[in-house]
Amino acid sequence: MSAVEPKRTLSPLENVAPNTTQIDLEYLGQLQMIASCLLEGEGGTALVDPGPASALDMLRAKLGQRGLSVADVDHLVLTHIHLDHAGATGTLVRENPRIRVWVHERGAPHLIDPARLIESATRLYGAKMNWLWGEILPVPAGNVQALSGSERIRVGGRTLEVVYTPGHAWHHVSYFDAANGIAFVGDTGGIRIANRGYVSPVTPPPDIDLESWEKSLEQIRARHPTRLFLTHFGSADGVDEHLGELAERLEAWSDNVRKSLENSGDDAERANRFVQEVTASLARHLEEPEADRYARYVGLKQCWYGLARYWRKHGDAP
Known about the structure:
Layout: E1 14-17, E2 20-24, E3 35-39, E4 46-48, H1 56-65, E5 75-77, H2 83-86, H3 89-95, E6 100-104, H4 108-112, H5 115-125, H6 129-133, E7 144-147, E8 152-155, E9 158-164, E10 173-177, E11 182-186, H7 210-222, E12 227-230, E13 234-236, H8 239-261, H9 267-285, H10 290-298, H11 300-314
Helix pairs in contact: 7-8, 8-9, 8-11, 9-10, 9-11
């Protein structure tokens, strides 16, 4: 599905710090949608969020640009186990059984036995499941290093501070590379494609928790990173402005959804109105094709359902 054509020109790798390389996985043939990050140095080569199995051929090709292969990877450092971030993990470990997988303790059981993860994703994506994400294999328990979010780990020539950062997912952690001023923040840091001037939250069901997310953003601010590394997509500067915009947009979206639950209509109608309103906002802030890329990748309809679930669980919404 994602095989690299023999004569295809690969997008270049980007060095974002010493021995720190941004890899565009060119997900489904699209640039700047999913990024992994290669960390090299003493302590073993690491990949932060290796991406979905459907992009494995591209990941292998990009490692080859650095003169590396899967056999050279020692660590997979996961912010969380959602398939766009970690779906390739089991296959990579099968290819290289030396790999250690770092993941929050609440996500670890679902790497070891991904049956529930696969079932949940299949309900959401249906017949497109394999095309979108590829094969999802279990990870042997002996390869999994469960984290609580209070550790320091040595990988890729640096020490990473592990911090528990829920809000997008209950098993989400972020990794702070103080020496280079980079915070690897997964989806807690939102989406900002190629450092452009628009930051979007991602709020699919079932784990959205606004209070936890606010605290997680404070955890990021408290460590004063100079750059964020976003899986969607890449290195982002202007950290204070970025986090402020993310918090404001998350509040605006959540208020929109809460108010929509008080109005007449069914959920499908409410979700469609939300999609229309946010799409119009994107068009005001971004030119095409960027506005469409944000709308498609964020998955606005699922974002409505994630926030609606939050309000029905925590508020007085119907």
